[in-house]
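Data card: per-record layout.
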Amino acid sequence: MDNRSFKMDNLKKLREKKKMTQTRLSVEIEVSQEIISHYEVGESKPNIDNLIKIADFFHCSTDYLLNRTDNPTMPKNLDNNHKTDILYKYNSLSDENKQHLICFLDYLYNK
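The structure for this 111-residue chain is written out next.
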């Protein structure tokens, strides 16, 4: 995907919902106003640090900012034991079964 095909539409929605200017947001996350504009129109992609700053500021998931979900809610944190167990089991699956699991999780999530 090239930079111009990626716009952070949800960033703009969150910002406008809070009646916040690009300039104000840029001050809050310590980047230039032009950077915010470039993210919103698809002229550039945020680096990891800026993506996390934006997600933390708006209390939303990075997936929402990246237009990977319509749900802005942050996922609940699992304790480290559950994370390790889930990741171990997931990594033990075949690629086909990983895809099945993801489809099943999407089904449960959207149910």
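Known properties of this structure: Helices lie at 9-17, 22-29, 33-41, 48-58, 62-65, 80-92, 95-110. The chain has a mean pLDDT of 86.

See the next section for split statistics.
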